[in-house]
Design brief:
The protein has 25 helices and 20 strands. The protein is an alpha/beta fold. It has 4 domains: 231 residues, Rossmann fold, CATH 3.40.50; 59 residues, no CATH class; 86 residues, no CATH class; 146 residues, no CATH class. The strands form 6 sheets. The protein has a 5-stranded parallel β-sheet with strand order 2-3-4-1-6, with helices on one face. The longest helix has 17 residues. It is elongated. The termini are far apart.
Length: 561
């Protein structure tokens, strides 16, 4: 059945519901075959939010679980894993499966996090209540089981709860269980954002370590998350851990839509003419050497009448980006602004996918690795230096993510309450309305935090204006301190569309408020005397707005023509 006659699986994270509910479905069961072939004991897959991690683990659950095995086998009829042969299908329905997701364990304190986890463990243990009356349980084990089942387990009880449940399952079913743990790092991210990071790390070290490290009851485990928590002893001594992050080729296309899958969907919807724009908005992610579309954005795009807008960002939110930008230094901030201003702009980073959250505020490389693993940057190139270290070149993946950066960078530069004012200011600037331009720029300056102690006023104002104009990307190419005529202009806006006027800004810092008008006049005259418009004219721009702007503290004066 064609895609236009089937609902998009927006928010569907249960594999059975997806397959049996007439939803549009892209077969990703090759992941099961690759997992069996690899025979990893503990596999960690890191992907950005809303890329199908929960759905992938649900698929594994329905395949491996021995509960309702015969009925579940029908879910895979005709799919890639069945076509791969009986060698793979013979493993269907053969193991007890322990599946839990930590994605909702996001709380403001360590105590509330543990309380929420206790409720989750109650549900998990309740699913195996039948074990209580079996030979798999002696009295101490039954007493422990009932404490967890009643939500009365201590922190120490919960720390070993996964390992103990796997021991009960192994004894009851006579075969080692599979552990599927979704969004394992969600509580850690919440702890970092809310100030109880160390307490959470200490607990998770025991919670995960006991379940995964030298656990004789574990068949194999698959974990998903956004990041790999490193150097914090969570996975210390876990020699059987296979980390498949965004730079790894193994399982690269297990989540997300490939070029072929996205093109097929557009074709079935009769939207082939939207393919190029779809690519600009939602493509651009690179997992290993495989280019992928954001699946959440693509299915929402189709579901909402093929309307291009922000779907992933609107649901996932920018909380990570906000936290990362909160303490960024000026050098890194300027680099991020450069990514917004110039097409194909990039930054370099040393590859170290192991995240230590506290280091993000002090280590520039940790910042970039976090932006990479969370989906806000992509690695377009990797290479090894002469000493054997691996590096990568990073870019913003697509327009949807670019807009998220614009929102957060502009909030940092202009203040979160000045977005409408900023848009109005830029529109006035491009339309030659100097008085309106000055009015709105003055409001933004007035509302900003104090900057009176800045050592180099002209450099400060130049950086400010450059930051405020990141929204012009897509309409203009913004150039800074470039030679034109007989000198170097401060800022110039080269239109990307024929018939759009160009803009030249010359900035001056006045020594006093009384000097503002004279300095603004001087700046405008400098544009004419130095013929700063020469390069714009050479490129065929016929209409050019010229602005001389003088600053003193939070006061400005502007002349334009």
């Amino acid at each position: 059945m064609q895609a236009q006659n089937r609902p998009m699986p927006v928010g569907i994270e249960d594999f059975k519901k997806l397959v049996t509910g007439n939803y549009y479905f892209i077969d990703k069961t090759r992941f099961i075959r690759e997992l069996i072939d690899t025979q990893g004991v503990v596999t960690l897959l890191t992907r950005p939010r809303r890329f199908g991690k929960t759905l992938s683990l649900s698929m594994l659950q329905y395949f491996f679980t021995l509960e309702n095995a015969e009925e579940n086998r029908k879910l895979f009829a005709g799919l890639d894993i069945e076509r791969a042969g009986e060698n793979y299908m013979s493993q269907q329905g053969t193991r007890p499966v322990l599946f839990l997701t930590l994605k909702e364990i996001r709380r403001p304190s360590h105590a509330s996090m543990l309380a929420m986890l206790a409720s989750l463990l109650q549900e998990v243990y309740a699913g195996y209540r039948c074990i209580l009356d079996s030979d798999a349980m002696d009295d101490p084990a039954a007493e422990y089981f009932r404490r967890i089942l009643a939500g009365k387990g201590s922190e120490e009880d919960m720390a070993i709860s996964l390992k103990r449940l796997m021991a009960y399952l192994e004894k009851y079913y006579g075969t080692q269980p599979v552990l599927l743990l979704d969004e394992y790092d969600a509580p850690i991210l919440s702890a970092w954002e809310n100030g109880y990071y160390r307490e959470c790390i200490d607990f998770m070290r025991s919670f995960l370590g006991s379940a995964l490290k030298t656990n004789p009851y574990l068949g194999f485990a698959v974990l998903t998350g956004i990041t790999r928590i490193s150097k914090e002893s969570i996975f210390s001594g876990l020699n059987n851990l296979d980390v498949c992050g965004v730079l790894a080729n193994l399982y690269a296309d297990a989540m997300g839509f490939t070029q072929e899958e996205a093109a097929k969907l557009m074709s079935e919807c009769g939207m082939e003419d939207k393919q190029t724009e779809l690519q600009q908005w939602y493509d651009g992610y690179l997992f290993g050497q495989t280019e992928l579309y954001n699946p959440w954005s693509v299915i929402n795009f189709v579901q909402h009448g093929c309307k291009f807008q922000r779907y992933w960002i609107n649901v996932s939110g920018n909380s990570i980006l906000q936290v990362l930008l909160r303490s960024i230094d000026e050098n890194r901030y300027e680099e991020l602004q450069g990514l917004l201003r110039f097409r194909d702009s990039s930054v370099e980073a040393l590859i170290d996918e192991g995240i230590i959250y506290p280091d993000i505020e002090t280590d520039e490389n940790a910042l970039y690795m976090m932006l990479l693993t969370t989906g806000y940057l992509k690695a377009i190139e990797t290479w090894q230096d002469r000493r054997g270290r691996w590096w990568c070149r990073l870019q913003i993946p697509n327009r949807e993510v670019l807009l998220a950066y614009e929102d957060e960078v502009l909030a940092k530069v202009a203040g979160s309450g000045n977005r409408v004012t900023l848009f109005a200011m830029l529109n006035a600037m491009a339309a030659g309305k100097a008085a309106v331009f000055q009015k709105h720029l003055g409001k933004i300056l007035k509302d900003m935090a104090s900057y009176h102690d800045t050592a180099q006023p002209e450099s400060f104002y130049h950086g400010l204006m450059l930051g405020l104009t990141v929204l012009m990307e897509g309409e203009y190419r913004v150039e800074s301190n470039r030679e034109s005529g007989y000198g170097r202009f401060d800022l110039a806006f080269f239109p990307l569309n024929q018939g759009t006027p160009g803009v030249i800004l010359e900035l001056k810092a006045a020594k006093s408020e009384e000097d503002l008008a004279e300095k603004a006049k001087e700046a405008l005259e400098q544009i004419a005397e130095k013929e700063y418009t020469a390069e714009l004219s050479r490129q065929g721009v016929r209409e050019i707005w010229r602005y001389g702007i003088a600053f003193h503290g939070k006061k400005i004066c502007m002349t334009g023509m």
